[in-house]
UniProtKB/TrEMBL annotation:
Protein's recorded name: Guanylate kinase
GO cellular component, one term: cytosol
InterPro entries (alphabetical): GK/Ca_channel_bsu, Guanylate_kin-like_dom, Guanylate_kinase_CS, P-loop_NTPase
Keyword flag Transferase: yes
GO MF terms, alphabetically ordered: GMP kinase activity
Enzyme Commission (EC) number: 2.7.4.8
């Protein structure tokens, strides 16, 4: 039985948009970066300092953490345990490191969905959102695509041309899992 659907993909590939379209509970992860405009603590991320994240990891309260663009992102064990104990279904956004750790820990109770979109569309989406560091955030695009191919159980092409199909696939998936 699948309890967690994990989304992974390059920056601006549409992971959050697709996850939100499923209208399922979300596992909120930790980050040391500052909140972007419109993001809320405890909803989008738990925004805490690097020091606190590292302290939580040392205390065994985090499954994993990754440094990306100078910020730390981490997955808490307690939130995963709550989902598993409730036998519910929830979503999470992770990088390759998080996806690999989830698969090691939860085996068949996690489904990893790789979200891809053309490089140019990812770049355009970031510029439309007035995001800074566009080139730095997309520098790892090719590597992330390779990781998606290697790690994901399902890959969704989230290009503009496929948006409705991508949403439909997730809708069918949700119906089959609930």
């Amino acid at each position: 039985m699948i309890n967690i659907i994990a989304f992974m993909g390059p920056s601006a590939s549409g992971k959050s948009t697709l996850r939100d379209s499923m209208e399922l509970d979300r596992i909120v992860t930790f980050t040391s970066r500052k909140a972007r405009e419109g993001e809320k603590d405890g909803v989008d991320y738990h925004f805490i300092s690097r020091e606190i994240i590292l302290e939580l990891y040392d205390k065994g309260k985090l499954l994993e953490f990754t440094e990306y663009n100078g910020n730390i992102y981490a997955t808490g064990i307690e939130s995963l345990t709550e989902v598993m104990d409730s036998k519910g279904l929830a979503t999470i956004i992770v990088d390759n490191n998080g996806a690999v750790k989830l698969k090691e820990l939860l085996v068949e109770r996690v489904l990893v969905i790789g979200v891809v979109a053309p490089f140019e569309e990812c770049e355009e989406r970031m510029m439309d959102r007035n995001e800074s560091d566009v080139s730095r955030r997309l520098a790892s695009y090719e590597r992330e695509i390779e990781e998606i191919i290697k790690t994901s159980d399902l890959i969704i092409n989230n290009s503009r041309a496929n948006w409705n199909s991508a949403k439909d696939i997730l809708g069918y998936l949700k119906k089959g899992l609930i």
